[in-house]
UniProtKB/TrEMBL annotation, chain A:
One of its GO terms (biological process) is lactate metabolic process. Belongs to the LutA/YkgE family. It comes from Salicibibacter kimchii. GO terms for molecular function: oxidoreductase activity. Residues 3-83, 132-215 form the Cysteine-rich domain. This is Lactate utilization protein A. Is involved in L-lactate degradation and allows cells to grow with lactate as the sole carbon source. It comes from the Bacteria.
From TrEMBL, chain B:
It comes from Salicibibacter kimchii. Keywords: 4Fe-4S, Electron transport, Iron, Iron-sulfur, Metal-binding, Repeat, Transport. This is Lactate utilization protein B. Coiled coil: none annotated. HAMAP family: LutB (MF_02103). Residues 310-377 form the 4Fe-4S ferredoxin-type domain. The keyword Protein transport does not apply. Residues 385-469 form the Lactate utilization protein B C-terminal domain. Pfam families: Fer4_8, LUD_dom, LutB_C. Belongs to the LutB/YkgF family. GO terms for molecular function: 4 iron, 4 sulfur cluster binding; metal ion binding. Is involved in L-lactate degradation and allows cells to grow with lactate as the sole carbon source. Has probably a role as an electron transporter during oxidation of L-lactate. One of its GO terms (biological process) is lactate metabolic process. The lineage of its organism: Bacteria, Bacillati, Bacillota, Bacilli, Bacillales.
Length: 242, 476
């Protein structure tokens, strides 16, 4: 199966390891992964801030890039949700809208793709750790993906998953929200961090670079011992090979 | 009290909220309780999603045919001997109520909870005519006694106060000498209000839903004050905002169920009161004279726009009870009697953008509100739509942000430029990088690094790794 990877801007620049794990993982389950180099960002920063003229420009760029792809897979729930938003964003431009709908129909978040399309529930990973999982808002509420990551993690050999209290609460990232309303965002992330510490997990797993950057950044500042990992890294982990 | 309340400056209000540890503790536990109760009572119904869809369909249909149902309601009220007045503005509505009060030579008015009369500043208007106006809903009464402290929650207006603070209010203002036990306080207030009910010339109520087919006003309450306000005074004036209407009793059944469960996690509240016109010959109590004031006050401008579904709101506050932003800043931070996510959506619609341009940004767009809404209002989408209007139509976005977004639009739609930028990021950020972290970023990164570290941009981007890997694979 041919899959085009949409790495996302944060994934490309800040979390290349999550990207590498995504590629290896997809290859492991039998996909051929290509990476269209013309890809940029999904446009969410502009869209969420109300700059829709700019967001439309960026959306068209993404539509062009993935025109010929059979599947577009991205290791981010939030960016996947944004790809699905394009047809709404491009209302009033019928030709683009049709293209946007085509892109949306073939775009998946990584765990959703593994479970729903490839029917893979066990990636053969082994990882001995106590971990907790952060459910990203956009992935659960906008993309409506909540079971897939849990299913995949439950099959990781040696991984003990601990329930995160108040897992339904936003971590306070919200893209530009984090810098536009930094004080409120800080309170939200502090509450999230204290819930993570409450679980006594050693590892925090998430499926969205934005949330991980926010929660991880706050935990770094507080010198928290909890390690932050992208779900792709966990699902690709084998005890021997790391 | 007008629609907008408290400090004018948004940041001042937010800071005040964040610094108020008492309030935040109270809000936190209230949110917790309300959320859990709603969860339990909505699960009881079985397929909650189907109920939400039904609620949405009822509200959509009603709003699509609002003119028809309002006319039907008005005819039915008149048939039953009541008077109907359509108020285009708050001033018109207030003027009508004042005139009724003058005709009745009223001195004292008792009120049950009504948000639209808050929005209209009806109490101020009546007090300026020398009338005494007494709020009889416990939460509203607390606020009124506390020198008109503004409400902080749509359902529980004094949610920001804890028992000890409430006790202090009554001790200071009313000579209360008992404990801060809820029963003691309630018993005291009951005694205070009993006389007011008996003395009042006019009872003013809001309206949860009017039933068009019979000309009925329904009130959903837990304290029974609504019943006394509508049973004892000789004159009753109900004030409703024009969208609070259902076609028939059948829809009322659905909407009340959604409202009770979403607002307080009950199947039904203690009192669901339905009132149709003035009392008839064979009835013992009820008003001799009944008036219904239907208020527009900017709502018809929302009809037919992308924000029409904001008028579907049934004021249950489910969105407020799940909002993490509200949780930390409290209701007063919104500077409006309508707070939380629905407040951030409604306030700019009713009051314009100029003074409310920060509200739509007071959200991380986590969509917990949309998920909680019993009538499926896409609240987070409305917030984004507001942001678009603020930046692109009203031109109220801050200049640096505008430029940054322009650059982003250009950069992210030109792959070459984008690649160049992301390649340089690591080098550009080097002066601020310690190890693999940035702890004191420059310019726009400052807001981030004030509270969090930022991972340094990687010296080898994912795309570099991928290209290298492809090359080495093809060399093999």
């Amino acid at each position: 199966m041919n899959v085009s990877l949409f790495i996302t801007c944060l994934g490309d620049m800040f979390y290349p390891n999550a990207g590498k794990a995504t590629v290896e993982l997809l290859e492991k389950v039998g996909c051929t992964v290509d990476f269209p180099t013309q890809q940029t960002c999904c446009g969410q920063p502009a869209f969420n801030s109300g700059y829709h003229k700019e967001a439309r420009k960026v959306a068209k760029q993404s539509i062009e890039v993935f025109k010929d792809s059979a599947y577009v897979v991205t290791p981010s729930g939030s960016c996947a949700a944004m790809l699905h938003e394009y047809s709404h964003l491009l209302e009033g431009e019928p030709e683009w809208q049709a293209e946007a709908e085509a892109l949306s129909a073939k775009s998946y978040e990584l765990t959703q793709f593994l479970v729903d399309v490839l029917k893979v529930e066990n990636t053969g990973a082994s990882f001995h750790a106590k971990a907790t999982y952060h459910t990203s808002c956009h992935m659960t509420r906008l993309l409506q993906v909540s079971e897939a990551p849990q299913t995949l993690l439950s099959h990781v050999d040696g991984l003990e998953m601990l329930d995160l209290p108040r897992n339904y609460d936003c971590c306070g990232f919200g893209g530009t929200f984090a810098v536009k309303m930094p004080e409120i965002s800080k309170e939200m992330v502090d509450e999230k961090v204290s819930c993570i510490h409450e679980t006594q997990a050693d590892v925090l797993i998430g499926a969205d670079a934005g949330c991980l950057m926010n929660i991880g950044g706050r935990m770094d500042r507080e010198n928290s011992p909890v390690k932050v990992m992208h779900i792709a890294e966990v699902l690709n982990y084998t005890e021997e090979g790391g | 009290m007008p629609l907008r309340v408290g400090e004018k400056d948004f940041q001042t209000r937010v800071n005040r909220g964040l610094e108020d540890a008492f309030m935040r503790g109270t809000v936190r536990s209230a949110q917790e309780q309300l959320r859990t109760r709603k969860q339990a009572s909505s699960e009881e119904l079985g397929d909650w999603e189907a109920w939400r869809t039904l609620g949405e369909e009822i509200r959509t249909h009603t709003l699509e045919h609002l003119d028809y149902y309002l006319e039907q309601l008005s005819d039915k009220v008149a048939e039953r001997g009541g008077h109907v007045y359509f108020a285009k503005t708050a001033e018109e509505g207030n003027a009508y109520v004042r005139q009724v009060a003058r005709e009745k030579e009223a001195k004292k008015i008792v009120k049950s909870k009504s948000m639209v009369t808050e929005e209209m500043s009806l109490n101020d208007a009546l007090e300026s005519d020398g009338l005494e106006v007494v709020e009889t809903d416990l939460g509203e009464y607390i606020l009124q006694v506390d020198d008109h402290d503004p409400p902080s929650h749509i359902v529980a207006p004094s949610l920001h106060k804890n028992r000890a603070q409430i006790k202090d209010v009554f001790a200071d203002k009313k000579g209360y000498e008992n404990s801060d036990n809820a029963n003691d306080i309630t018993r005291f207030v009951r005694g205070e209000l009993r006389e007011e009910f008996l003395d009042a010339d006019i009872g003013i109520t809001g309206c949860n839903f009017a039933v068009a087919e019979s000309g009925t006003i329904s009130l959903v309450t837990n304290e029974g004050n609504g019943d006394l306000v509508t049973a004892l005074p000789k004159t009753q004036i109900s004030v409703m905002s024009m969208e609070r209407i259902v076609p028939t009793w059948e829809e009322l059944d659905v909407m009340v169920s959604l409202l009770c469960r979403s607002a307080v996690g009950q199947k039904l509240t203690s009192y669901i009161t339905a009132l149709t016109g003035p009392k008839s010959e064979d009835e013992i109590d009820g008003p001799e004279d009944f008036h219904l004031v239907i208020v527009d006050n900017g709502r018809s401008d929302i009809l037919g726009t992308q924000f029409q579904s904001a008028l579907h709101c049934i004021r249950c506050a489910a969105c407020v009870n799940v909002c993490p932003v509200y949780r930390h800043v409290g209701g007063h931070a919104y500077g409006s009697i309508y707070n939380g996510p629905i407040g951030a959506v409604l306030t700019p619609l009713l009051d314009g953008y100029e003074d409310n341009k920060d509200l739509p940004y007071a959200s991380s767009l986590c969509a917990a509100c949309t998920e909680a809404c019993p009538v499926n209002i896409p609240l987070h989408e409305h917030l984004i739509a507001h942001r678009q209007i603020i930046t692109e139509k009203e031109n109220l976005g801050p200049m640096p942000e505008k430029w940054a977004m322009k650059m982003f639009g250009t950069g992210a739609s030109a792959p070459k430029l984008y690649r160049l930028g992301s390649k340089q990021a690591h080098r550009v950020m080097r002066p601020w990088t310690k190890g693999s972290r940035i702890s004191n970023g420059p310019g726009p990164l400052k807001a981030w690094t004030n509270f969090r570290d930022l991972p340094a941009p990687s010296s080898e981007r994912f795309r570099d790794w991928f290209a290298k890997r492809r090359r080495s694979n093809s060399d093999e």
